[in-house]
UniProtKB/TrEMBL annotation:
Cited InterPro entries: NCS2, UacT-like, Xan_ur_permease
Protein name (record): Xanthine permease
The organism's place on the tree of life at top rank: Bacteria
Compartment annotation: Cell membrane
Segments passing through the bilayer: 43-60, 72-91, 97-115, 122-144, 156-176, 183-204, 224-245, 309-330, 337-358, 397-416
Length: 444
């Protein structure tokens, strides 16, 4: 995680993470702008602030500033976990209400971060394995929609879209399996670049967004102003509570990908950065941020876990916020190209979860936890309309398959006899007796 590859290698690997995250970062402000029918200039300002804020918080999360930042390869971005609450607030109080409630609600995440050692105990191996698996299962439909041409597109599932996605997928597999050094490590960005070049050759790339984008744009903190409606603060606070669960699961998956023991203190620093970062982006004029799960797939696929590489990704995102034309250029990448690479990346997270499940002790109790929690998570993921007739608060809590699977797994682990627990940080440090440790060091 502390490796510093050569500059050219670092740039390629950082660009890889940026390509995986950029679509998700700009999607949230675009959705909010479309639903709330904001003027074009306000939507552009939201997108720029989201990119700049995500970039700055990514750097802090990777590098750390005092007690803030997990110091692992995390990419931060605007989260769809806040969209439901933001739209509800926006209809009545506009963008100032969304930003004010995001700022006030971030206190929940900041305070909650100090209880992460206790929350960590709710995630023993069985529960963690379920959450990591559910992250992979929830992300794969996203990649499928990309590969088919984009959800809602009139060309959804067109043979040309599927053919492009399949070409990129096969290319990435070949580069990872048979490439050496930087070729294998940068398989995603190389595969997407070749796919993008092929789409350009056949006239499938639309550059209209690049022509319309401004070359340079300064951030405008508090440009919209802020209001703090009580009902909106409650809704946003609930979204932050749900996000703590999702972020914990993402950090668990990241721990698996980077061979890092996710102790409570480490989680505390990471969740604190999510909270402080969301407060910062709210002031900047962007929706709240959280740790992106899709970039864990990049790490799992390439084996590159350098936090310095991902910190450079943060620099790229910040530049895209200051120079909108750069972000607009990346947005021209056809969705099938993203889908071919995304399917491989997200499937790697699923594979990691399956490997963790294979190490779970096989008994009736664990089988129940795994089966019921995955079933409930998949029910919400595959049929989101399942909750459409229930109160809004239920949708807010259980609208995400990752959150649903995690909550069900935690509850079942607590209520079923023979509870599995996670060792405390102090106990975990004592797992290897000192004589045995000396013996291993001597052998090494």
């Amino acid at each position: 995680m502390d490796d510093r590859p050569p500059l050219v290698t670092t740039v390629l690997l950082a660009a890889q993470h940026m390509l995986a995250a950029l679509g998700g970062i700009i999607a949230v402000p675009l959705v909010l702008g479309a639903v709330l029918k904001l003027p074009a200039d306000q939507i552009v300002a939201l997108v720029n602030a989201a990119l700049l804020g995500s970039g700055v918080v990514t750097i802090i999360q990777c590098k750390g500033v005092g007690p803030v930042g997990i110091r692992l390869p995390c990419v931060m971005g605007t989260s769809f976990g806040f969209v439901g609450a933001a739209i509800t607030i926006g209809f009545e109080h506009g963008v100032p209400g969304i930003l004010g409630c995001s700022l006030a609600g971030s206190v929940i995440m900041i305070v909650g971060s100090f209880f992460m050692p206790q929350i960590r105990k709710l995630f023993p191996h069985t529960v963690t394995a379920v959450v990591v698996t559910m992250i992979g299962l929830s992300l794969i439909p996203v990649a499928i929609d990309w590969a088919a041409g984009g959800k809602g597109s009139p060309a959804y599932g067109a043979p040309v879209n599927l053919g492009i996605a399949l070409f990129v997928l096969v290319l990435v597999i070949g580069l990872v399996q048979f490439g050496r050094g930087i070729i294998s490590a940068a398989a995603v960005v190389i595969g997407m670049s070749i796919g993008y070049a092929g789409c350009m050759a056949f006239g499938l790339v639309d550059f209209s967004s690049v022509r319309q984008a401004a070359v340079f744009a300064l951030p405008q903190p508090l440009h919209y102003g802020m209001t703090f409606p009580i009902s909106g603060i409650f809704a946003m606070s609930l979204a932050y509570v749900v996000t703590i669960v999702e972020t914990t699961g993402t950090f668990m998956a990241l721990g698996t990908a980077t061979n890092t023991k996710m102790r409570g203190k480490l989680l505390c620093r990471g969740v604190l950065c999510d909270g402080v970062g969301s407060a910062f982006t709210s002031i900047l004029g962007s929706p709240a941020v959280s740790t992106f799960a899709q970039n864990v797939g990049v790490i799992s696929l390439t084996g590159v876990a350098s936090r310095h590489v991902v910190a450079l990704t943060g620099v790229f995102l910040a530049l895209a916020g200051l120079f909108p034309v750069l972000g607009a250029l990346v947005v021209t990448i056809p969705q099938p190209v993203l889908g071919g690479a995304g399917l491989m990346m997200f499937a790697m997270i699923l594979a990691a979860g399956v490997q963790m499940l294979a190490k779970v002790e096989h008994n009736k109790r664990n089988g129940l936890i795994i089966a019921v929690s995955l079933g409930c998570g998949l029910a919400v993921t595959g049929r989101p309309e399942l909750l459409s007739k229930l109160p809004a608060i239920v949708n807010e809590i259980f609208g995400s398959g990752i959150t649903t699977g995690a909550i069900v797994a935690v509850v079942l682990n607590l209520v079923l006899p023979g509870r599995e627990t996670e060792a405390s940080d102090d106990e975990a440090e004592e797992e290897v007796p000192q004589p045995m440790l000396v013996k291993h060091l001597g052998a090494a």
